[in-house]
Amino acid sequence: MKNLFDVKGKTVLITGASSGIGAHIAAMFVQQGANVVLAARRMEKLETLAVEVASREAANPTQLLPVSMDVDSRDSVETGLQAAISHFGQIDILINNAGIARTARLLDMSENDWRSVVDTNLGSVWRVAQVVARKMLEQQRGGVIVNIASILGFVAQKQNANYGAAKSAVVHLTKSMALEWGGKGIRVNAIAPGYFETEINRSFLKSDKGSQYISTLFPGRAGKLSELEGPILLLASDAGSYINGSVITVDGGTLLSAV
Asked: Taking 80 as the threshold, does the pLDDT of residue 95 lie above it?
């Protein structure tokens, strides 16, 4: 029987790949036999990560390509994508993962706090997806785009209005992309993770306040990054061939609690 989750030989571009969800998912795709483009601004960290992943997964180092990419700059996105195409020949899957957080109460939030979070968490999702989708259509191969949203795109949380507003818009943008591009052979979906420990939230989750907060939510713990692998692989592979414009929450049921 055909392995519906097979992505062997596919080329995957992952933004925000230098740490957190991006770095973990990159290793997962390498393990599954895919070629992976590691895209982020921190080139030195990407190069180190590529060596570590290749060694840990006993993979061919040529499966991994670190690419400098500032997702807030169209020129940088286009240059990074061209480097990926030149190396691997095509892009089959985009994981739109880059994101930042700047917590502040609304009355104290600065213009930069608002602009930087919205531009990176929403603007870059549109920008990178548009550049990659144009290339996918040019290649006449179709493709898959998975945007990383958040459960905070569905519920409000104090001091995170900028982040939540951007992620809520990513949910809507995902559906718009799916509607416009689905008939052209490009499937677009999103996952909305709950609380997973990454560079963005590590200090909070490890604090007494953070631990106490997580314990009040269902299921009483933060998620493990490995628990994101299945949902992402489902959407990225032929197993999800009839899924388009959907958002899968991966939160252990956290949305059932008051967040």
From this structure: yes
